[in-house]
Amino acid sequence: MHSHINVHSSKYKCTECVKCFGSKQELTLHSRIHSGEKPFECTVCGKRFTASRDLDRHSRIHSGEKPYKCHECHKTFTMSGNLNTHMRVHTGQKPYKCSLCDKSFNQSGSLQTHKCSVHSNRRPYDCRWCGRLFKRSSHLKRHVYTHTGAKPYSCRHCSECFRQHVQLKSHLLKSHNEGTWFICHMCEKKFTLSRDLKEHVRRHEGVKPYVCDECLKCFCTAGELRLHAVKHSNAKLFCCGLCAKDFKYKRSVPIHFKRCAVEHGFTGV
Question: How far apart are CA 211 and CA 218, in angstroms?
C-alpha cells in the first residue's frame, strides 16, 4: 500500500493525462503514446516501435527465433505470453468464462468468438458475390477467396499456395513433416488440428454436447447444431447483392439473383 501511494505522489507525472509513474524511464516510455514517437526501427522491414523490447519481439519474426519452449510437447514460441497461453492446452485451464452459458475457454479471443457466433444473431458483413452474411469481417474475407480464387498463404518449402491458413498448416505437416500431429488414442487416426481430433473422439464416445433449445435433439458439433437450428429459426443468413432481400436458404439466392439482375438492367449475369 505504501509503494502504491508513492506512485500517486511521484514527481514523474504525465502532463497530458496526469498519470503517475515510479521512474523517469517509465514516464518517457508512456509519453511516446501521446507524442507518437517511435525511435526504434526494424532494419529489415522499416517498421518502428516505441520501446526496444517491442522491436526485439518483432525481430524474431524475421529471424525465426523462438526462445520459449514448451516442456510438455517441445513446441516453441517467439513470445513468453504465447507459451503461457499454449500451456493451458496441457493443463486444461480455461480462465475465460462465458457470462451467458456455462462454457469456458483458454483464450480471451476464443471467448469473444464464442459470444459472437453462439449468442448473437447480428451478421453485418455480406458477400457481394453470393449474398451470404457473416458475423465477422475476417470470415467474409476468407469466404471471398472462394469466389476470387485468391490463395494468399504460400508454402516456404515449395510452390503450393492455399486459400486458408489451416490448409497451409495441414500441407506443411503432411508434405514437409513440419508441425505436430494430433493422434486418436482409440484408433490412432491422425489429425492436423486439435479441434478435429476432439470432434473425432466425441464420435467414438457417442458424446453429443450440443443440444437444440427447440426440440432437444443433440449433436456432436456446434456446426451440426447451427445447421439444424435453421429449421426452427426465422433467421435469414443470405441476401441478394443487388436489392439486399434476405433469404433463409443459400439455394434461394441464385434463383432470385437472376431475376433481380434482369429487373435492374444487368445482362450476362
Answer: 4
| 185 burial via Cβ count (<10 Å: 0-12, 13-18, 19+) | exposed
Give the fold, CATH level 3, of 180-226. Double Stranded RNA Binding Domain (3.30.160)
Q: In angstroms, how far is the first alpha carbon of the chain from the final one?
A: 71
The CATH code of the domain at 128-175 is 3.30.160.60
Whether domain 2-65 has CATH 3.30.160.60: the reply is: yes
Closest to 125 (Cα-Cα) out of 113, 117, 136? 136
What is the torsional sign of CA 116, 117, 118, 121? positive
Cβ atoms of 138 and 149 closer than 8 Å:
no
CA dist., res. 91 & res. 215, Å (int): 35
Quick: pLDDT tens for 128-176: 888 778 888 888 888 888 888 889 889 999 999 998 888 999 999 999 9
Query: What nine digits make up the cell of 142?
Result: 476468407
DSSP state of 219: E
